[in-house]
Amino acid sequence: MDKFRIEKDTLGQIQVPEDSYIGSFTARAKQNFQISDLTASKHFIRAIGIVKLISSQSNAKLGLIDAKLAKAIETAAKEFISGKFNEEYKLDVFQAGAGTPFNMNANEIIANRANELLGGKKGEYQFVHPNNHVNMSQSSNDIIPVALCIAILFGAKPMLKSLSECEKALRAKSKQFRNVLKVGRTHLQDAVPITLGQEFGAYADAIKRDIDSLVYSLKSMKYLGIGGTAIGTGINTDPRFKKTFIKLIESYTKIKFKNERNTIESNQNISKFVYFSSVLKTLSYNLLRIANDLKLLNMGPLAGISEISLPEVEPGSSIMPGKINASIVECLQMICLQIIGNDQAVSVASQLGQLELNTTTPLVAFDILWSLSLMQNGLDMFTNSCVKGINANETRCRKNFERSLCTATALNPYLGYQKTAEIVKKALRTGKKIKYIILDEKILTKKQFDSIMRIQHVTKPYNIKNMLKGLKR
User: What residue spans define the domains of the chain?
Assistant: First the structure.
C-alpha cells in the first residue's frame, strides 16, 4: 500500500507520496492535468535546474540568503541538473498557463532535497522553502522563457552538428556524381542538361543556407529576461541581481549571455521563439522538397525514372514480393510535417500574450524542443541510412538523356530558336533522336554536335562566341 505524507498550502491539505521530493503544488498539478503523457524534454529539465542553481548563487553573492542554505540549494540543484530527479519531474506539458507547475515542480524537488541535506524531512521545509528560498528573485513568468532560451541552445547544438553532417554527405555525393550527365526537369518535363552532381550540390547549398539561418536565429536566445519576475518590472529583486546572474551563468555554461534590454517586453513577447521555430519550419520545407526529388529520381526500378538508387533498408510490401520503398525519406517527410505542425502551434500561441504575459510558454517550449529532437534524429537517420548510400544509375541517366529533348536548348545559339523548334517537332513526330535528325540532314557534323554537347558546354556558362568561330572553321 502506498504511503503518503500530508502537506498544507493555501487551498488546504493534500496527500503527497511519502518518499517523493515533490510538494503540494506539484501534487495538485498531477491531479489536475492528466492530459497527454507528454513531459518536459531533458534539455528543459537541465536548463531550469541551471536557472535555480545560478539564482541561488546570485542571491548568496548579494547577501540575500544565508550561505548555509544557499550551499544546500546549490548541491540539490546540481543533482537536479545531473538528472537524479528526472522521474520526479514528470508533469504533463498541457498544464496551467505560463508554466507555473513546471517552475514549482523544480522548486519543490530542490527544496525538499536541500532540507534533507540539512537534516530536515521532506515536506516540512524547516530550513529551505520552495517559494521563499529556491524561487527567490524569480517568477514562473520570467523563469520559464529563460529556461527555454537555454534549453534551445542546448538542443540546437547537436541538431546543428547533425545538419552539418547531412550537408557534408550531400556535398560528397555532388563530387561523386559530378560527371553524370542527365536530364534537368522543370514542370516535371524535360528541360536542359544538368549533372547529377549539380543537383546534389544544390541540395547541399540549400542545407548550408538553413544552417546559417539557424545560427543567426540562435543569437536572440542569448538574451535572458532574468530578474523581470511577474510582469517584467523586477518586483522583489535586488537591482544587482540581473547582472550578477548573467555573469555567473556565463561562467557556468561558457555561453556569452546578455540581459534583455526591456524585461517587460520579453515577458509579453515570445516572437524570438516564433522566429526560431519558423527557421526550423523552413528547413523542414527544404528537406521535404529534397525528399520528394529523391523519391522521383529513385522511382522504378524498371518503369520509372530510376536515375538513382536509394539504399534498401527493408522489404516494401506485405503483399508484393521484392518491392522496395523509399522508407527512410518517407519517415523524414513525416518528421518534417510534424515540425511544420509544431511551428503552426507556436505561431498561434504567440498571439495569446494578453497585456503583460504570454501564458502559452509550456506548449511553446515542448513544441520547439520536440521539433529539435525530431529533426536531429531524423537527420541522423537520413544521412546515415540514406544519403551516404545513394548510388547513381549512370546507364539509366545516359539513356534518359539521349532519348530526351533537353539537348535542344543547347543548339539555340548555333541553329536559332525557330530551326531548333522544327527539329524538336520532327523528333516528337518521328520518334527519332535529335542527334540523328541533325546528322542525317547534315545540319551539323558529328564532330560539331559532340563538341556542342560536351558536358562543360551544356551544364555551365562558356564562351559561345569562340565556339561559333570554331564551328565555322
Answer: 4-136, 156-221+267-392, 407-472
